[in-house]
Structure formats: C-alpha cells, structure tokens
Amino acid sequence: MEIYLDANATTPVLPQARDAALSVMADAFGNPSSIHGSGLKARARLDEVRAIARRVLGAPAGRLLFTSGATEGIQTAVLSALTDLRRRRDAGQAIPPRLLFGATEHKAVPEALKHWNALLGLGLDVEAIPVGLDGRHDLAWLRANAPSAGLVCTMAANNETGVISDLDGIADALRGSGALWLVDGVQALGKLPLQLGERAIDYAPFSGHKLYAPKGIGMLYVREGTPFTPLLAGGGQEGALRSGTENMAGIAALGAVLDALERGGVFASLGELLDRRQRLADALRQAFPGVVFNAPFELSLPTTLNVSVPGLGAKLLLDLFDAAGLRVSGGSACGAAKAAPSYVLQAMGLPAWQAASAVRLSFGAADTEATIQEACRRLRACGEALRATCQIPAPDETPQSPELLTRFTVDGACCYVVADAASRRCAVIDPLPELTGTLAQWMRCRGLTLVAILDTHSHGDHASSAQALRDAIPEGLAQEARVESVDALGWPREAEVIALGMHRLSRLATPGHTEDAVAYLLHAGGDLVASFVGDTVMPGALGRSDFAQSAPSAFGASLKTLERNVGPEGLLLSGHDYDDRFATTLAIECAAQPLLDGVLKGRFSADAFAMEKATLERDLAPTEYQTMACGARIDCARAAERVELDVEALQAMLGQGDGPKPVLVDVREAYEARLSPTSELAPEPVPLSVLINALPRWRALPADTPVVFFCRSGNRSAQAARALRRLGHGQAWSLAGGLALWPTAQPASHFDAFAI
Length: 756
Known about the structure:
Blueprint: E1 3-4, H1 15-26, H2 37-57, E2 63-67, H3 70-90, E3 98-102, H4 108-119, E4 125-129, H5 139-145, E5 149-155, H6 167-174, E6 180-184, E7 203-207, E8 218-222, H7 248-263, H8 270-287, E9 292-293, E10 304-308, H9 314-323, E11 326-327, H10 343-347, H11 352-357, E12 359-362, H12 369-388, E13 405-410, E14 413-420, E15 425-429, H13 436-445, E16 449-454, H14 466-472, E17 498-500, E18 503-509, E19 518-524, E20 527-534, E21 537-538, E22 541-543, H15 552-566, E23 572-574, H16 586-592, H17 594-600, H18 606-616, E24 631-633, E25 644-645, H19 647-655, E26 663-666, H20 670-675, E27 684-685, H21 691-699, E28 707-710, H22 715-726, E29 732-735
Parallel strand pairs: 1-11, 3-4, 3-5, 5-6, 15-16, 20-23, 25-29, 26-27, 26-28, 28-29
Antiparallel strand pairs: 2-8, 7-8, 9-10, 10-12, 13-14, 14-15, 17-18, 18-19, 19-20, 21-22, 22-24
Helix pairs in contact: 1-7, 2-7, 3-4, 5-6, 8-12, 15-18, 16-17
C-alpha cells in the first residue's frame, strides 16, 4: 500500500464525505433555486452546511459563499478589493499606490494581484512583504509600509513549510492603515482556530480538497461591510454573490467533513499530531544523519515537515521516497514539475543548497496510527538503501565494484568518473563544485584511488573544483594527482598517458573553445572506448569561442584533429549536455550541424568558419537553468518523434511468439530498484548515471530488436530512448508513465484501517 504524505497538496475523500456526495447525487439531487419539494430539500442542505461552516470558522456574521476552490476565492477577493480601489480613483479620491503580499505566498495570490491590477488598469506597484529565517512576515517592515497599501495578502499557514503566520501581529501592524486584508486560509482549515469574526480579516478563501472533501469545492468568507464584486454574474445564486448552480454534491461532502471536525472523533487531536510529527522527524534523523528541518517546529503546523539533506538533491530524494511507496513532494504541488529551487525557502534567506534540495512531507489529521508507523519504517528503509548503494556513509561499508564510466550532471554540466574495477584506480574529468561531497563519498565507498582530476579547459562559468576534491579525499589521493605534481588542467607533469589498470587516458590539444582546451581519449588495449571532448563538441552544438581566453581561429583545425584521432563514429562525451542526449559522434553532429560538416569537409577555411561561428554566438541567451550557455545550440529541440510505448503494447510485445524479443532496461538508480524491485519484468539494470557504458552495445543490436527502457514515471526512460535513437537505433522505446502505471496488485484503500 502506498503511504501518502502529501496532504498539503490534496487529501483523499473522507468516507462520510463520499457518502454525502453520493446521497445528494442519487436521492437529493434537486436544484436549491427551485421552489418545489426537491429544491427545498437541497436548499435546506445548503443552508445547513453554511451554518456548520460558520461555526467551524467562527464567523457568525459576514458573507460566506461556496466557490469552486481557493483559487476562485482569491480571484474574487482580489477583484473585489481592486474594483473598490478603481471606483475610489474614478471618483477623484487618492488611492494607496501599492499592493502587498507575503513573499512566501502561494503563487495564486501574486498572480491574481498582477492579473487584476493590469486588467483594471490600476498600475499599482505589486510588492512582496519580506519574511525572516523563521518564515514569518517582517512586521516592522509591514507596519512601515501598510499605510501606502490598498490590499495586503498573507497566509494563515504556509503550504510548503507549514509556518503559521502571526495573524495577531499582522493585524496590529495593519491597524489604522486603511488597507484591506486577505488571508489565505487553505492550510489552516481544520488545523487552526481562525475565529474569523474576532479578527479584522476582510477576505479568507478556503479549499475543500485540502481537508478530505472532493476537489472543486471551496468557500470564501467576506467580512461585513467589506467591498465585494462578484466574479461570476448570471442567475443570481448565492444571494447574487456567485452565480451558477451550486455544486451540491461538493457542498454536501464539505459539510460532512466540517461536521466530523465539529463533532470530533475522526481527526487526531493536536497532541496526537505533534507526537506523529516527532516520530516522523526521528525516523528522518535515523535515515539521514545531518537532515535539516527548514522551519521551526514551534511555529509550524503539526502535520508538515520540510527537510533538506546535505549532499542529496530533491530529485534523488523524491525518486527514493517514491520507490519506497512514500508519496511526498518537492514543495508546492503546483510547482512540482519545475526544476527550480523553492522560492519560499529562498525568500526565507536559507542557503541555496537547502532551497534546491528541499522536500515536503505532510500527513493528514485523519491518517491512521498504522500509516504513521509504516511511514517511519519506510523512511528508515530509504536510509538503508542509500547506505547500501554508496550514496551516504555506512559504518561497515564493503567496497563496491564501479562501472567503467559514471556521469554526474548539474544544470546541464557534466562530470565523469573513469574507474578501472580491477586496479581500483580512477580519474575525475571536469569536476563540478556542487559535486565535491558526492564524488568523495562515491569514491570512498568503492575503495578507489584517485590518480587524476582533469579539466578539459579553463572554465568560463565556474572555477575548477579540483583542489576542493583533493581536500575532500586526502586518504584516497595518489601522489601523481597532488597539486604540486600536475599542470593547470590537472595532467601529471611529464606523463604521456595516465594508466588506470587495463585502461589508459591520453590527451589531445583542441584549442578553440579556450586556448588550453584538450580532449581526453580513453583506450582499453588498442581500442578507443570514448573521448571526453569538453565543450569542443556538444550534442547539437559547438562550444562557443567568444571568450577572452578563446582561440576561434584554431577551432576548425582542432575539429579536424579530433576527427583524425577518434573517427566519425567514436563516442564523444561532452562537458555540457543540455538536452539529455548522453553521448554523440562526429557523424551524428555533422548531420545536425552544417557548420561542423562544412569545416570537416573543407568547405570553410579556418577564418570563414570562425566568422560563421561568431555570428551564431552573438547574443546567446542563458540556458533554462539560468546559467551561461557554453555553445550555440543548432539542433537543440528535443526529438518530436514519439518514443512512448503503452502498457498494452509492451505486454503484446512480450507475449509475441515470433520476432526478436525486446531488451528490457531499468534506468532507475540502484537505491530505487532496491526498494522497489521489478522481478516480474526481469530487466537489465542500467542506471541512467552509467547509461553511457551500454550505449555502444545497444547500438550494435540488430535494427529490429526493441530496447524498452523504464523508470518510475517515464521521464528518464524517455531520455534514454531518445538518446539511443539519436545514436542510430530506431527501435528504442520508453514505457509510458513508467512503473507508476504498470499493473500491480490493487493497493489497499487509504482509509481501510479507519475507525469511523
């Protein structure tokens, strides 16, 4: 059974709520605007739910209307406040010039402010209220700036961190300012005693699906006398405050949840919730020594934990937890698909690594004790899986055998480790500052001796981290890799080759991207295995040559030198891979890049090539990671061809009696596969980090042999399939939706153990 720890994103529907919705749809389906018996019954149910909601919210007066959810409530509140400001301005009154929102607000709030500010032609300044390291609003700043604000928007509790706002302090800071006050109450519903009638809150939107009601139902509280403009006009429902036939099934379901909250006995008490959070925190500490909690417990909701683990990125943790059947998120669910640090943690001023690696665990007040116990067990199992696969230190590590080539990436930049399993000697090529701790742990766990730390060129976007890596692993550093023994790029002085057991590295000068650019050629016996070309050639691009340290006139000759030494089909491993292609060849790049093809075939002189290249590189925009682009990407669009293979198609392929059998490849990392084995598929395990080792073998398969990759969600497997197709094997596929959609035994209901 999956353990759902993402309640701040949404919750399952409470059985009572489900029953109430079904009852309304089946037996009490009348329109509450109708005056016959069925309509009157529906109206009575609607009024009953509104009365319960008023009691739960402590709002005996003021307007309380049902909406489709918090986003609609926020839009309605912002429209109402800003329409009143425009009315006052049109009447010749001076209006405050600013709209303020908490820097950690859900994006729905600032986006609504910007939208209606522009649409109504107000032109007001939309500004963020700073927060401190504890995530709470800077009340001194707010007190000083509130008099110039027409609307102030804050949260009752933050959706990412669980930090509870000091509503009384905010109210005091706003006193006498004249500003209207919107409080996003979504995460507070059922968790905090808001007592809206006792506070000067003008607008408070809520969403039912955050508290065990269905999606599509919410509420908006509007204080008595506060300006109001309907967002929806029409039939005049909800007292003409929100037109449209009421969602009676959703309202009935929400009413059942609020009734359960009011009666007690369904939701855990505050003391129980605090105890459960503590046990989850203890399990996290046991699993990940050094884990950091990003919000103070004493100021946070008892159901939310926001954590970062030094040396482990959010993507790794999310994949790890998901493999263990723990459903968590990397911050707000609305931004979970975006590869960006948490803006909430950035606004709090936390270090960049914490903001970039944070994950959120949020449980529900209706979760069972058994759910929390199992969650703690699985968290500890996650730590054990990482220790067993060299991701974090273990007290009794047994050295593991390394693959020949391992690739690490950071925002499109690539770092490689070449490791000879027999001799336990390795070299690191193009180390990245963000990877120092990861690389040191990776080598220690495998019992490797580091004989070289090599850069392919002097980098323009970061300083070499070679010395930091030397300092991090002094016990595993060979004499020839020490700083006094190497040149500026890390090559041992006087050495012709670097010996790595049965493998050896040689170097080839390739000036162009920089004056000192080199390629490193990896041989096994007399065979060329791969060439590390830095940014001389990248998948879909040539390295830029407009830096002060570049040698543009030498670039064309270097490409010809590279061709003579590696040939058109030699595997090239680049310093940047913005489009997840893993490897390339000169033949592939010539087909994609006319400029490269032209210089290698003699159609461009060195000077003409440099001029054409300079034109391509003019005004290069930053990458999607907001880093310096290290080349003008010609063939940068991801392949449009469909590589996804649905479950039924794969099952048919596996069951066919004739034709080549598909090669099944699991590209998940070892720690994921350990937690979630796939014995029924019996795949070949080739984690994405070591995919480059298997690419030559798969390229050599018969053209009609399918290679089907899979992972957790289908994203990484699609990368692998597109990479292999680009390298020439047309029958490369990705299991659509990944293992998340692969048929398994039916999971138990989230509420199976509920005592209702």
